[in-house]
């Protein structure tokens, strides 16, 4: 009976691996939940490595996890096939139910790679639902599997973050709620554009300041701010970590001020991290940090992209901030990040898109 079951699983999963049903419904669940299919005893042994890889903390300023791991048994996988994020994890030869399941769902060539290649992880997109990511983590022994998880932690985390960004992108970018007239105005006046959702308002837009500020829900307990700042006739030499804090503080000291003009926003000293990334094929410094008032009393998280655009000789700084003291802010700051990723210069847009945007500009 067991042999028949394994053969059946092999056939079913092999078919799923080579073809995805485009009629599948969208994956469901919270963005920050990852369901781990694993036997209870094996999960306890893998928990440290998986937690280190996926439950990294960000500070908003309270600590929040990037993802929350939730173990389920292989017997319950059918009930969770519609979840957004899934991991199937077990050593190949442990004899556990999850180990047998993995051996049943991969063919001999894939099994050989899992056994011999330390950096080999199976990623399957849209397997049982749209915009879903299922990964299979396995190795010959538990020790080797733990090592594989530690070794590939950054790549695995990146994969789940990117699919999460894609899902959020699809939810945010709705033409029905897009302010194309504002986007077109930015394109016409400044040579760049960014997605402007319906509930964002232009708080500041003066051409001589090279600064545009968009705000959502000002005066509420869940504010979101976006700014775009650029420096003309600049040099790539600006792209150093110290410049980020200096330029951002200079801009926020002028424009991010309290209503009575008595205080202003600065970069907090703690939890300031900078990474080198590729943003739209440009070398970019990506910053995650905290902002606060210079007199304390208020604060929150921000994300920031700074890069040099060769075509215009401009340094661009794109920045998204959140003020939501009563709420968890992990998902809110991710929304700001995904919105910043919609930024495009004119040279990156198609002629059709340029025409559509400029046609919406109100004279």
Fold topology:
Layout: H1 2-18, E1 33-37, H2 40-54, E2 57-59, E3 63-65, E4 68-72, E5 85-89, H3 97-105, H4 108-116, E6 122-125, E7 133-137, H5 142-151, H6 153-172, H7 180-190, E8 192-193, E9 200-206, E10 211-216, E11 223-231, H8 241-255, E12 265-267, E13 273-279, E14 282-293, E15 299-309, E16 314-323, H9 330-340, E17 344-345, H10 351-359
Parallel strand pairs: 1-4, 1-5, 5-7
Antiparallel strand pairs: 2-3, 6-7, 8-17, 9-10, 10-11, 11-16, 12-14, 13-14, 14-15, 15-16
* CATH evolutionary superfamily of the largest domain: Mog1/PsbP, alpha/beta/alpha sandwich
* CA(first)-CA(last) distance: 74 Å
pLDDT < 50 runs, ≥5 residues: 1-20
Q: Strand tally, please?
A: 17
**Total individual domains:** 2
Please tally the helical runs, counting DSSP H or I stretches of 4 or more residues. Answer: 10
| CA gyration radius, whole angstroms | 24 Å
Helix percentage range: 25-40%
CATH class designation of the largest domain: Alpha Beta
CATH architecture of the largest domain: 3-Layer(aba) Sandwich
Could you tell me the strand content as a percent range?
Answer: 25-35%
Shape: elongated
Give me the secondary-structure category. alpha+beta
- What is the CATH fold-level name of the largest domain? Protein Transport Mog1p, Chain A
Mean pLDDT: 91
Q: List the secondary-structure elements in sequence, H or E.
A: HEHEEEEHHEEHHHEEEEHEEEEEHEH
Largest sheet: 8 strands, antiparallel
């Amino acid at each position: 009976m067991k042999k028949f079951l394994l053969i059946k699983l092999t056939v079913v999963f092999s078919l799923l691996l080579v073809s995805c049903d485009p009629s599948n419904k969208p994956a469901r669940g919270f963005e920050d939940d990852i369901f781990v299919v694993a036997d209870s005893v094996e999960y306890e042994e893998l928990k440290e490595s998986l937690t280190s890889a996926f439950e990294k903390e960000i500070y908003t300023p309270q600590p929040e996890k990037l993802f929350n791991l939730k173990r389920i048994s292989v017997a319950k996988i059918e009930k969770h096939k519609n979840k957004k994020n899934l991991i199937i994890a077990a050593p190949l030869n442990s004899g556990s139910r999850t180990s047998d399941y993995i051996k049943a769902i991969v063919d001999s060539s894939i099994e050989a790679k899992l056994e011999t290649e330390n950096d080999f992880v199976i990623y399957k997109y849209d397997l049982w639902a749209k915009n879903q990511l299922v990964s299979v983590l396995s190795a010959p022994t538990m020790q080797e599997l733990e090592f594989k998880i530690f070794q590939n932690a950054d790549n695995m985390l990146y994969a789940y973050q990117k699919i999460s960004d894609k899902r959020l992108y699809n939810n945010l970018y709705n033409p029905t709620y897009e302010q194309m007239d504002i986007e077109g105005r930015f394109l016409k006046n400044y040579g760049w554009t960014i997605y402007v959702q319906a509930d964002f308002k232009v708080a500041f837009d003066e051409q001589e300041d090279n600064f545009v500020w968009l705000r959502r829900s000002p005066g509420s307990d869940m504010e979101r701010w976006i700014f775009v700042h650029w420096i003309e006739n600049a040099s790539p030499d600006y792209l150093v970590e110290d410049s980020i804090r200096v330029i951002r503080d200079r801009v926020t000291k002028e424009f991010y001020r309290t209503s009575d003009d008595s205080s202003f926003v600065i970069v907090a000293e703690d939890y300031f991290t900078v990474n080198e990334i590729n943003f739209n094929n440009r070398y970019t410094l990506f910053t995650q940090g905290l902002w606060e008032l210079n007199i304390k009393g208020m604060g929150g998280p921000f994300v920031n992209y700074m890069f040099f655009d060769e075509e215009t000789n401009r340094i661009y700084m794109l920045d998204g901030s959140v003020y939501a003291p009563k709420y968890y802010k992990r998902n809110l700051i991710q929304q700001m990040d995904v919105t910043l990723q919609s930024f495009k210069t004119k040279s990156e847009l198609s002629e059709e898109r340029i025409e559509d945007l400029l046609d919406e500009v109100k004279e």
